[in-house]
Design goal:
The protein has 429 residues and is an alpha/beta fold. It contains 14 helices and 18 strands.
Length: 429
């Protein structure tokens, strides 16, 4: 039986989960795959804190360079996150001829073209299943399970923090700040939640998905990203009245050799399965031209779910089943990324308008001048002379026209505050 020796850099949440799975499930893994995994070393500056795992003597060390240069180690697992020194560690491991497994979506999204090219030139594998959607094996599904398909679109709830916050706001009618505070108290959100709530984490993951399925270079800087911090309970309640729920969606789709890559709050029909995904769970909807619509659901973070994805990559590489892991992002398409201003979508508008005769006609007149057609309108209560919410759902419109129309409408003397707009997916005109 083949024995593969593993070195892990980083003994935090995911590192602990990965080590636990290797130690606890090793016999089962060997029986199932014919590969015996040996945890040779774990490098972390903190060698004193009890992680609740009993490691063999001498496994935990404080010197990552010693681990990188150990000739007995076959696979390096990078789990420290961030760009530096993770990038240097991975490049050093590649130069030393070692295979790599990482969960570092931020590094791959921004520096991945260099890393994958280095792995390709050296002939080593670079596995990244754990970088997207935690325990959901979405990379393997897209690369192997749906390899016979031309992927038409992917819609993902791929950040559990944002999904928890929006679920809390929807089910309990609490405001954003209160929901965020509770997420932080429960450990679902960091003390600085910016990467999550502003959509950046989801954007990193979507960059990898889009490159994988459309064969384009990693293009994080071309992706549109918008978070959930401006979503209010008013918008959530109005969405309900229209029959929608608001989710932070990562969306990629290809139409006529153009790729849309965008992360933003999105209204989706409440009867859609993905709209029912609540709490910290993730879900990824994939539409393939052969298989049709499929949905994958599970835990998107945590020590054991993400550790499971890490070990899955280790097993694939160890058994040489990681097809093209050293070159997973083959540039075979002639696609280009569509600018957000050029997308077509249905839109939700919430105007803060003075309650007086003729206001709706003035607003609708401006919308019409930009080829934006109104599908539905909601106005709550009557407060003559006061500012009230006026909510509009449009037919499909062009984003650049929407922005120009809103800019003009917000200058009206009957509009008291900036207009809120949310894109709508799932229903066509």
């Amino acid at each position: 039986m083949q024995t593969v020796k593993i070195g892990i850099i980083g003994f935090g949440t995911v590192g602990s989960g990965t080590a636990k799975i290797i130690l606890d499930n090793n016999e089962f893994i060997a029986e199932r795959t014919g590969v015996k995994l040996e945890l040779k070393s774990i490098a972390d500056p903190d060698t004193e804190t009890d992680r609740g795992i009993k490691l063999p003597a001498g496994v935990l060390i404080d010197d990552a360079k010693k681990l990188l240069n150990d000739p007995e180690i076959d696979i390096i697992v990078e789990l420290i996150g961030g760009t530096d020194p993770a990038r240097d560690f991975i490049l050093q491991a590649i130069r030393n001829g070692k295979h790599i497994v990482t969960a570092n979506k931020a590094l791959l999204a921004t520096e991945g073209n260099e890393l994958f090219e280095a792995a390709r030139e050296k002939g080593v594998y670079l596995g990244f299943e754990a970088s997207v959607a935690g325990g959901i094996p979405i990379i393997k599904i897209l690369r192997e399970g749906l390899a016979a398909n031309r992927i038409l679109s992917v819609y993902g709830i791929i950040n559990g923090t944002c999904n928890y916050i929006l679920t809390k706001m929807t089910s309990e009618n609490v405001d954003f700040n209160s929901a965020l505070k509770e997420a932080q108290e429960l450990g679902y959100a960091e003390a600085d939640p910016t990467l999550d709530i502003e959509g950046i984490d989801s954007a990193h993951k979507l960059t990898l998905i889009s490159s994988l399925i459309y064969g384009i270079p990693l293009s994080y800087n071309m992706l549109y990203c918008e978070g959930i911090s401006k979503i209010s309970t008013h918008d959530i309640q109005f969405a309900k009245e229209f029959g929608y729920r608001i989710k932070l969606l990562a969306i990629t789709k290809a139409v006529n050799d153009e790729i849309e890559m965008r992360v933003h709050p999105t209204m989706i029909p409440e009867n859609y399965m993905i709209a029912k995904v609540d709490g910290v769970f993730n879900a990824v909807y994939v539409n393939g031209n052969a298989v049709g619509e499929t949905l994958y659901y599970g835990k998107g973070a945590g020590d054991m779910p993400t550790g499971s994805a890490v070990v899955s990559d280790i097993i694939d590489i160890a058994s040489k089943k990681g097809c093209a892991y050293h070159a997973p992002l083959r540039h075979y398409g002639n696609f280009h990324v569509k600018d957000i201003d050029d997308i077509d979508s249905i839109y939700y508008f919430r105007f803060t308008a003075i309650d007086k005769p003729g206001v709706l006609s003035r607003i609708s007149g401006i919308l019409g001048s930009y080829n934006i057609s109104i599908a539905s309108v909601i106005q709550k209560g009557r407060h003559a002379g006061e500012a009230v919410p006026l909510v509009v759902l449009t037919h499909k419109s062009r984003e650049k026209d929407v922005k120009k129309a809103i800019e003009e409408i917000d200058r009206l003397d009957v509009v008291a505050d900036k207009t809120i707009f949310i894109r709508v997916e799932g229903r066509e005109d």
